[in-house]
């Protein structure tokens, strides 16, 4: 609350600066200081994220403002005592170098960087490296600067290594439910998981997807007509290839990929004719997922007779699709028929991260089949009814009528349930107490009424018989 103290929050957009500003706004309000910034006291305060008008100005010249990197010219307006770079990983280094570093240097200001890392980008070079006294081998860090300090916090204790600059420094329990952490570890690719739950500076290098032909490939078999059939369509303008994938979900949620078209130069009608021939007369697609940018394709499909309804994923980011495909593979819910989708398999084996652009895929515009798979898996569809499932697909070698099979299963479950109920009754404390009663008539009555819940202390044999 000192005089002429300039505090600024810089974020990639105004909404991304709302969280940090809201924390300070609420703290000042609870302490009663926010009232000093009211117009009647000569100040000004506004909290409007939609318009970007977020500021607190006190009559003695101190202020807190939110600036957006979308408007670089505004970043040169004031000298700064305390700078917060909100979601700094999404800011460009140019924003800090050209517009902000000199503004804090003039006042010998402090810069705070609360952010989730995004690979080893400029945040790693500018703030992480100079904050470490020792390198990974325990030797002095030649780039160490005592003015810098950093601490990376992890929600996974396995990702903590204080001597490794890329890993977390400390573990903070109870940030997430442990089961959520385990599930995320299965769902996400290693670098994304290390960033989101480990807080570390992940290296985006190597393959993107954990596809293993020895594990995820399977021998072909007849796909049941009643399974949930899905179509993924990544349209490429000639001479680029168009990739169409056909997959089917079984009742357990396993997605089997069993047909692929990878070619160029066809019309939309010709592509759809191939889909219909491949599905056959009895398989009805539950969903046709099309590239969100392929508006003309969706229009032409809707104009067919009968019209074809299409879907687009709500989350269009490549990262979301990578997470979903990784989850299915790690949970053993992803299978590819042998020799059915060669281009799709080739892409999954070759797709790599772009080391220079974290979370970006190197040459992502050439992976059409993987794009089609992303569109499919990002849209939720119902799984088929297991009661109609042929016995061969429910892990048994006995061939029998499905309805009879499931009836037998329900009867076994019911029998197991009532056996458990009877065992609990046998252990009921009232039976033990009743065995000690001298009135054998009352005890015999209760033996004949095993579901009668009657307190022993309240039981009167004579009044019972009278009733």
Task: Please name the defining characteristics of this protein.
Nucleotidyltransferase, domain 5, 6-stranded mixed β-sheet, 467 residues, single chain, alpha/beta, Rossmann fold, 15 helices, 4 domains
Question: What is the structure about, briefly put?
Answer:
With 467 residues, the protein is of the alpha/beta class. It has helices at residues 18-31, 93-105, 122-128, 178-187, 190-196, 213-216, 268-279, 295-302, 318-330, 342-350, 368-377, 402-426, 429-434, 440-448, 461-466; strands at residues 6-11, 44-48, 53-57, 63-68, 82-85, 110-112, 153-154, 170-171, 217-218, 228-234, 242-249, 255-263, 285-290, 334-337. It contains 15 helices and 14 strands.
Please give a structural write-up:
- Helix content is 33%, strand content 15%.
- Helix 9 (318-330) packs across helix 11 (368-377).
- By secondary structure, the protein is α/β, with parallel strands linked by helices.
- Strand 3 and strand 4 form a beta hairpin.
- The chain has helices at 18-31, 93-105, 122-128, 178-187, 190-196, 213-216, 268-279, 295-302, 318-330, 342-350, 368-377, 402-426, 429-434, 440-448, 461-466, and strands at 6-11, 44-48, 53-57, 63-68, 82-85, 110-112, 153-154, 170-171, 217-218, 228-234, 242-249, 255-263, 285-290, 334-337.
- For this structure, the CATH topology of the largest domain is Nucleotidyltransferase, domain 5
Structural class comes to: alpha/beta
Tally of domains: 4
Overall mean pLDDT score? Answer: 83
Number of strands: 14
Strand order of the largest sheet: 2-3-4-1-5-6
CATH class of the largest domain: Alpha Beta
Compressed to H and E, one letter per element, the order equals EHEEEEHEHEEHHHEEEEHEHHEHHHHHH
| Distance N to C terminus | 82 Å
Sum up the overall morphology in one term: elongated
Radius of gyration: 32 Å
User: How much helix, percentage-wise, in residues?
Assistant: 25-40%
Q: How many separate helices?
A: 15
Largest sheet data: 6 strands, mixed
- Residue fraction in strands: 5-15%
**Stretches with pLDDT under 50, minimum 5 residues:** 391-400, 437-459
CATH architecture of the largest domain: 2-Layer Sandwich
């Amino acid at each position: 609350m000192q005089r002429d103290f300039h505090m600024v929050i810089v974020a990639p957009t105004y909404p991304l600066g709302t969280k940090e500003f809201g924390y300070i706004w609420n703290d000042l309000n609870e302490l009663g200081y926010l009232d000093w910034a009211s117009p009647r006291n000569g100040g000004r305060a506004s909290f409007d994220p939609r318009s970007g008008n977020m500021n607190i100005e006190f009559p003695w010249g101190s202020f807190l403002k939110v600036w957006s990197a979308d408007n670089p010219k505004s970043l040169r307006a004031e000298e700064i005592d305390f700078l917060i770079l909100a979601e700094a990983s999404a800011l460009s280094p140019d924003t800090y170098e050209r517009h902000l570093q000199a503004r804090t240097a003039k006042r010998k200001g402090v810069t705070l960087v609360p952010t989730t890392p995004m690979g080893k980008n400029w945040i790693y070079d500018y703030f992480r490296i100079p904050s470490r006294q020792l390198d990974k081998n325990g030797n002095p860090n030649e780039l160490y600067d005592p003015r810098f300090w950093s601490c990376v916090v992890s929600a996974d204790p396995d990702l903590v290594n204080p001597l490794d600059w890329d890993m977390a420094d400390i573990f903070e329990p109870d940030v997430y439910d442990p089961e959520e952490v385990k599930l995320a570890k299965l769902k996400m690719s290693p670098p994304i998981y290390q960033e989101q739950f480990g807080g570390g500076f992940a290296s985006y290098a190597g393959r993107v997807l954990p596809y293993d032909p020895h594990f995820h490939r399977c021998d072909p078999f007849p796909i049941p007509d009643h399974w949930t059939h899905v179509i993924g369509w990544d349209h490429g303008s000639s001479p680029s290839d168009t990739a169409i994938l056909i997959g089917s979900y079984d009742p357990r949620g396993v997605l089997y990929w069993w047909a692929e078209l990878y070619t160029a130069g066809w019309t939309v009608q010709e592509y759809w004719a191939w889909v219909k021939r491949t599905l056959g007369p009895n398989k009805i697609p539950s969903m046709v997922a099309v590239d969100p940018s392929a508006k003309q394709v969706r229009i032409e499909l809707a104009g067919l007779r009968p019209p074809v309804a299409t879907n687009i994923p709500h989350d269009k980011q490549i990262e979301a699709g990578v997470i979903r495909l990784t989850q299915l593979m790690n949970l053993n819910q992803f299978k590819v028929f042998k020799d059915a989708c060669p281009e799709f398999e080739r892409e999954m084996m070759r797709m790599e991260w772009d080391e220079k652009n974290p979370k970006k895929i190197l040459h992502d515009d050439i992976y059409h089949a993987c794009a089609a798979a992303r569109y499919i898996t990002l849209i939720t569809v119902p799984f088929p009814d297991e009661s109609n499932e042929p016995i061969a697909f429910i892990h048994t070698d006995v061939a029998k009528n499905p309805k009879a099979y499931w009836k037998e299963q329900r009867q076994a479950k019911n029998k197991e349930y009532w056996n458990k109920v009877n065992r609990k009754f046998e252990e009921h404390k009232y039976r033990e107490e009743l065995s000690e009663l001298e009135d054998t008539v009352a005890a015999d009555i209760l033996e004949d009424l095993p579901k009668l819940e009657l307190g022993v202390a309240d039981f009167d044999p004579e009044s019972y018989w009278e009733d």
